[in-house]
Amino acid sequence: MTEKTLRREDARLLTGKGRFTADWNLPGQLHAFFLRADRAHAQIASIDAAAARARRGVHLVMTGADLAEAGWKSLQGGVGFTGVGGQAMRKPFWPALARGRVHYVGQPVALVVAESALLAQDAAEEIAIEYRDLSAVVGFEAATAPGAPQLHEEAPGNLAFEYETGDRAAVEAAFARAPLRTRLTVASQRLVGNPIEPRAFLAAWDAAAERVTVYTPSQGANGMRAQLAEITGVAREKLRIVTEDVGGSFGIRSFAFAEHVAVMLAAKKLGRPVKWVALRSELFLSENQGRSLSLTGELALDRDGRFLALRFDDRADIGAYATPFGAQIGSRNITITMGGVYRIPAMYAHTRVAYSNTAPVSAYRGAGRPDISYAIERVVDHAAAEHGFDPVQLRRRNFVPPEAMPYTTANGTTYDCGEFEAVMDKALALADWTGFPARRERSARAGRLRGIGLSTFLEISAPSRTPKDQVFARFDARGDLHLYAISQSSGQGHETTFVRIVTDALGTSDERIRFHESDPDLRVIGNGTGGSRSLYGAGSAFFLLGPILVETARPHAAEALGVAADAVEYRAGAFHSGGRSIAYFELASALAARMAAGSSHPASHPASHPASHPLDCLAEGHFGPTFPNGCHVAEVEIDPETGETDIAAYTTVDDVGNVIDHASVEGQAQGGVMQGVGQVLGEEAVYDRDTGQLLTGSYVDYPMPRADWMHRIRCDEHLVPTRSNPLGAKGVGESGTSGAVPALVNAILDAVRPAGIKHLDTPITPDKLWRALRDSRATRRTPS
Q1: Each residue of 103-144: pLDDT tens digit?
Q2: What are the pLDDT digits (tens) for 583-604?
Q3: Which H, E and C letters describe 739-760, residue by residue?
Q4: Cα separation of 227 and 255, whole Å?
Q5: CB 259 within 8 A of CB 142
Q6: At what angle do helices 391-398 and 369-387 cross, to 10 degrees?
Q7: Closest Cα partner for 250 from 293, 292, 288, 193?
Q8: Helices (H), 571-637
Q9: What is the pTM of this model?
Q10: Residue 253 and residue 258: Cα distance in Å, rounded?
């Protein structure tokens, strides 16, 4: 693929010319504000909204009773696969506005619609709610403890789901004969997604046409449309989803939220558009959160360090309700690649998923893959330290070799390709691993602790959830090409990448090509953006589209050149025959002009898009999952007097298959790494254990990763194309986070292990690190 330096979307987004959901305004629109629960668990004794309804400028106050009267269904969630003993997921009804009880601080209880957002907020303060408080449970252990308060009658003991995978008997036998064993528990703490664009929603209900148009950030209109249709009963074909630019997603923009459903009903009741734009404080309380997992890993080894068996006991707190991904992350997602890049003869995992009085958990960048990568790589490093192995050589001894590909793991996942040792060797060379002892000595002379750590990881790009990925090509009245897909960019660079695939296939420039995502009036079958599937899914379909565009045009080019179709050759953006030629877009323009002269456009079709240009076509395909992998090396320096960790250097080498746009790949790698750095060094959603109140509800208490946390990062690639899709691409969106969390934690522990510190849970804040070093010094001074 050709290399270019500027992405098509960058100028628009960097100069403030993007169009996000909050930028949309419709004639006659009203504004919504949500009154939210101020406690984690309570019965709703009464709601008195008379004073709010009486305020001038207030048009509507809605509660859960209005949703019940409308007959609208529960918000969607849960898993479709079975667990231990064939059990189904225990999923309680999830109302868009609370009914009878509230189950977490921030749960929507009432909706006020008024002439302005501020007026709606003021009126909401006049709603009087009488609660009868109930005891709250926070975290998996509290939720599943004997005698814990019951959250939902559908889930006795608050246990939502129990899952297992692998061969338990084979693992137990391997552990029984293993001369060496290692056991470690890691916690992947609860995180707040914090995309740069606050969530917003605008709904307009056309009663005459029985059609609803909604404006919302999403990761693909099909999933959002399907969920809203299922909840509200509106036919899918009557639901228009409008999404243009999206300011960050990370998985939390995938699904319909309670606020979406309530705003839709308000718009229907009032017959006017209703708009809601979240305050940042609302998002801390109510946006789906991420992680909240605890994984206990045990590794069995022979005396030479060869892995014999691996088992995990996992616990997932999914919050108050079952989102569409919460339980899947805590079960299948963290086990499907539980063997990582290693050849392990026997594996078994058992995982339990529980409800608690906290915000619901769903997908957040990686959706389980960073968590299992973290657990595996920490267990491997822990085993190396515990049993005296070099961490690099221990990994090298146990990699799945290229000649073993395709390789099926002990719990049934098949990796198609990979060169794990070559990836690691390149990363070690770029990071100057062998030169580290000298750098450590220099740091020691300056009174600082220096450490180096690596992670060799593998993750899965999500498999297709639809029968196929489709893309469309349409030509307008000028003969310009418009490309359509259902994927939705939130910074990944789709506009650049997909157009580049087509221009490379056509051999043309990109001036006459436009890309459109999630067009509300064009039904495209396909997957939304998520799980790093966009390039290998929609991108592969665009790769297939190139030859179809050429072949669709060939007979028309032959007619224009006055020759038979088989006498026409296509190269360098034009059709050639006998010394004559016609450029691709010259032909497209000529055909559009002929159409315009011969017929008028139907009134229902935009003039810019003829009813059917002769070159309009589509491409489609079904593409299997892929397995991006990589090696990250982190080097840190720690001030033992303050606990401050400085990331002195960071190196990534990723195998993401074939690369279309290096700038986008590097940007995603860097962004993913920094999200991992945020988890390691500071981010955590902390709830009060007694009351369920969120204690980190603003940026004052919740630190976001900063650019100056990373002094030097070098990103490189070792590419092994996959055969599971025509592009040979594997996906890159989750790789940065999957590699960063374990690499950085391993580096920090390498720095402090000489002080006797064997493990620290994230976030490893300066205070936590300083206290650990202080306590270690005190322990060493105390006589045994």
Answers
A1: 999 999 999 999 999 999 999 999 999 999 999 999 999 999
A2: 999 999 999 999 888 754 433 3
A3: HHHHHHHHHHHHHHHHHCCCCC
A4: 7
A5: no
A6: 120
A7: 193
A8: 584-598
A9: 0.95
A10: 13
